[in-house]
Specification:
Number of helices: 7
Structural class: alpha+beta
CATH architecture of the largest domain: Roll
Shape: elongated
Number of strands: 12
Low-confidence stretches: none
Strand content: 25-35%
Order of helices and strands: EHHEEEHEEHEHEEEEHEH
Helix content: 25-40%
CATH class of the largest domain: Alpha Beta
CATH topology of the largest domain: Nuclear Transport Factor 2, Chain: A
Largest sheet: 6 strands, antiparallel
Radius of gyration: 18 Å
Distance between the termini: 30 Å
Mean pLDDT: 89
Length: about 180
């Protein structure tokens, strides 16, 4: 376990800012204490500073996990967010998409959101903007990238892709079936 380098921090904050903009600083200085990002075995963990101090009591090989794994760095150095980051992205998300119940189930199976399944979209959403996908009852179910701007969605064909799938809460269940 080690702190992120400046380059790694820039890549992580750039990825997070795609979804939450300038609210990245709110992830670090929270009312309930200071939180930090740490790297352990190519995984990025987000944990309270006091918890990180307690992990120093364990040898690196004995430490499996701590805090919340929010992503990883790939072999080529790119930052990839995991679905576990959703709980931290959703409250600060600037751009949101709401999926209808039928499209919600399709999204949870790993498919993109189509115009026919679009319930609502935030007005200021631009194309290629990171978005958090919610069900119609405001429960965050995943995140993705807007394929079209909010204005383009109004004139789009019903079968046009509105939001590309990045991660969803159904991933855990799908990955568990491959392990058994």
């Amino acid at each position: 376990m080690r702190p992120l380098t400046d380059d790694e921090t820039k890549r992580l904050f750039k990825k997070l800012s795609v979804y939450i903009g300038d609210n990245v600083k709110l992830l670090i200085d929270r009312p309930d204490g200071n939180y930090v990002f740490r790297l352990h075995k190519d995984r990025i963990y987000y944990a309270k500073e006091s918890l990180v101090k307690l992990t120093s009591n364990f040898a690196r090989k004995q430490l499996i996990s701590f805090g919340t794994c929010i992503g990883k760095f790939t072999k080529n150095g790119a930052c990839r967010l995991h679905i576990t980051a959703l709980d931290f992205l959703a409250p600060y998300a600037k751009h949101k998409v709401w999926a209808k119940p039928g499209a919600e189930q399709s999204f949870l199976y790993g498919n993109h959101v189509l115009k026919s399944g679009l319930g609502r979209i935030a007005e200021n959403t631009a194309a290629n903007q990171g978005v958090v996908i919610h069900s119609m009852n405001d429960m965050p179910i995943g995140f993705g990238v807007a394929a079209k701007s909010a204005q383009d969605c109004h004139q789009a064909d019903p079968m046009a892709i509105v939001c590309y799938h990045q991660a969803d809460v159904g991933e855990y269940l799908r990955s568990e079936t491959h392990l058994t």
